[in-house]
Design a protein that fits this description.
By secondary structure, the protein is an alpha+beta fold. It is built from 1 helix and 3 strands, in the order βββα.
């Protein structure tokens, strides 16, 4: 059973040292997200666009 209202944290953007890192957790990760770096961008907008358009 899954909750009705939950955030999808499969893909996230994390600020790190003046850049924004796009991370994805594989579906095989189950309870431990095991995030992997997909891309790094100088702006949050670029990182968000990458996920939105990707």
């Amino acid at each position: 059973m899954s909750p009705h209202y939950s955030d999808d944290l499969t893909e996230i953007v994390e600020p790190r040292d003046n850049v924004f890192v796009v991370l994805r957790s594989p579906e095989t990760a189950e309870h431990d997200p095991a995030y992997r770096v997909l891309a790094i961008f100088p702006t949050l907008k670029q990182a968000d666009d990458y996920l939105r358009l990707g």
